[in-house]
Amino acid sequence: MSQLKILLVDDEQEFLSALAERLELRGYQVTAVNSGEAALQTFESEVPDIVVLDLKMPGLSGLDVLKQINSWFEFVPVLLLTGYGSTKDGMKGMHYGAYDYLMKPLNIDDLIAKIHEAVQAVNF
Question: What is the rounded distance in angstroms from the CA atom of residue 119 to the CA atom of residue 41?
Fold first, then answer.
């Protein structure tokens, strides 16, 4: 498989930068943006292989972004990130087409495994 293109979307800048760096060190091509609006604009120039998307953001929420992505490109899997105790929100996201959700704080190995699982599921 060629280098995976990951779109990371999270309004917490420190978390976003740290996660992007950890993924890039493992050989992934990462575009990191800090808003739902910026995420949707990214699709105008390049469609990622997968989106890792925070649910709770100011402006466009993760659910809003998820719905828009799925209406444009239903073959792009979306993994949702939820805060502690937000299992209900993660399940709601799956109802709207997310592949799965992960709880923060993240284990990088769990995230990578879930990324590969999601990409393989849509490219079987």
Answer: 22
Q: Which of helix, strand or coil describes residue 46?
A: coil
Mean pLDDT along residues 70-99: 86
User: pLDDT for 84-96, tens place per residue?
Assistant: 656 777 888 888 9
Q: Domain map of the chain by residue range?
A: 5-122
Global confidence as pTM: 0.94
Residues 6+ apart with CB under 8 A from 43: 69, 72, 73
Which of 47, 49, 53 minimizes the C-alpha distance to 32? 53
pLDDT in tens, 20-47: 999 999 999 999 999 999 999 999 899 9
Distance CA 23, CA 48 (A): 14
- Residues whose CB falls within 8 Å of the CB of residue 81, separated by 6 or more in sequence, listed in order: 10, 52, 53, 54, 55, 62, 101, 102, 103, 104, 106
CATH of segment(s) 5-122: 3.40.50.2300
